[in-house]
Amino acid sequence: MSDFRDVEEFRTHVREWLAQNVPPVTLATGDEAVERSKRFTKKLFDAGLAGLEVPRAYGGQGLGPSHQQIWREEASKVPVPMGIYDIGLGMCGPIILALGTEAQRTRYLPPLLEGTEIWCQLFSEPAAGSDVAALRTRAVRSGDGYAITGQKVWTTGAHFCDFGILLARTDPDVPKHRGITMFIVDMKAPGVVVRPLRDMSGQAHFNEVFLDDVQVGLDAVVGEIDKGWEAARLLLSFERLAVSGGGSGIEGGASGPLSFHGLVEAARGAGTLRSSGARESLVDLYLLERSVNVFNERLSREYDSGIDPGARGSIGKLLKARREVAAAGLTTRLIGPAADFDAGASPRRTDATLRSFALPIGGGTNEIQLSIIGERVLGLPREPQPDLHTPFSDLDSRRKDVAR
After folding, report:
1. What homologous superfamily is domain 7-118 in, according to CATH?
2. Where in the chain are all domains bearing CATH 1.20.140.10?
C-alpha cells in the first residue's frame, strides 16, 4: 500500500476498497461466521488497511490518528464482517501494545492483525462480575512460571479463540485490588475447558471457561506481577471506547437493522412511517445516535492526540447501551406483527434486537457506568468500600463461612 499523506485521498481509497470487498450481508453463525471474518480480515491485511496506527514493526501501517478516524467513519457505513475480532483489536491488542514486552508485541500483534489468531477476554467470574477485583481464579508459582486454576464466565467467543487475556490472583494476602496479575493464556492449552452458553437469541455468543492447573511461563505476564488491576483498568478503558464506538445493531453500522436508517426502511415497509408518533420516536433515536457518534468521535480524536479520556469512556458506553435498547424497543412498535420473533420474519433484525439487551451488562453494567461517571467525572463522593484495605484471603474466608 502507498503512503497516503493526503487524508482525503486515503478516504477515497478506503471507500472504494470497502465497496469492492465487503461481502453481502448474511446472518452467518458458527464456523461459517468465523471463516467469513477470517477471509475478509486477511484481505484487509493484504491491502495494507489493518492496524493503521500500529507500528510497522508489529504488522501495522504506522499511520496517524487522522487515517484511523477516516477508517472508522467509512467502515461504520457498511456491514464489515469483523465482529469476532472486536475484543482482540479493540482490547487485547492495545493492552499488549501498551504494556507488553517487545517479544509479546512481535509474537502476538502481526497474526492478530492478519486475522489468523482470535482473542478473548477472561475477566468475569461467577462471584466476580461487576466487582471484577473479587476474582478467585488463582495463579500459583510453578517451576519457571505459574499454574492457573479457576473459572471464568460470560467470555465472548472463547469457543473459537486462540488466546485470551486473563486476570488471576497471585497474592491473596493483600487487599483485593492488589495481588492480581494479567496473563496471556493459550485457549488450546491442556487444562482449559470451554463450555458455550446459549442465550435467548438461540446462539452461543458467551461461554464459561474452566482452568485446571493451566501452565504458563513468566513470558505470559502482561505488565508487572501483582499489578494487574492497573492493567485491567487500562484494558477496560479500551473496551469502553471500543464498545461505544462500534456500529449499530448486527453487522451493518449506519445501515444496520437497528440503526436509524435501518428502522426508517423497516417502518416504511410496515406502513407505519406516516404516523406522527413513529416519526417523533425516530427523530429521538436519530438524536441519540448522533450524540453517541459525536461524543465518540471527540474521544477518539483526543485519544489519538495523546489525551487520555479516562472515565469519560463510560459516558460513551452508557449512551451506546441506551441507544441499542431504545432501538430494540422501537423495532417492535414500528413493525408490529412483522417483528414476531418466533416467526423469524427478519433474522438479522431479530438477532440484533435480542442481542441488544447484552450491551447494558457486558463491559460493566449501566449502573456501574453511572457510578464511574458520578465518582470520576463529576467528582461525587465514592460509594462506601469497607473491604478496600482488608486482605483478600480474609474476605474469602468470610465468604466461605457464610456459604456454609
Report:
1. Acyl-CoA dehydrogenase/oxidase, N-terminal domain (1.10.540.10)
2. 245-377
Residue entry with cell 418466533 = 342
Grid coordinates representing 364 are 460493566
The residue behind cell 474521544 is 299
Fold of 245-377: Butyryl-CoA Dehydrogenase, subunit A; domain 3 (1.20.140)
Identify the bridge partners of residue 206 per DSSP, sorted by sequence position.
197
C-alpha 183/C-alpha 219 separation (Å) is 9
Enter the C-alpha cell of residue 280. Answer: 417523533
How many Cβ atoms from other residues are within 10 Å of residue 28's Cβ? 15
Asked if 239 is an active-site residue, the reply is: yes
92-113 pLDDT, tens digit each: 999 999 999 999 999 999 999 9
Using the predicted structure, report yes or no on whether residue 198 has a pLDDT greater than 90: no
- Of the residues 74, 208, 239, 251, only one is catalytic, namely 239
Tell me if 18 sits within 8 A of 78, measured CB to CB. yes
Q: How many CB atoms lie within 10 A of CB 228?
A: 28
Question: pLDDT (tens digit, 9 = 90+) per residue, 167-176?
Answer: 999 999 999 9
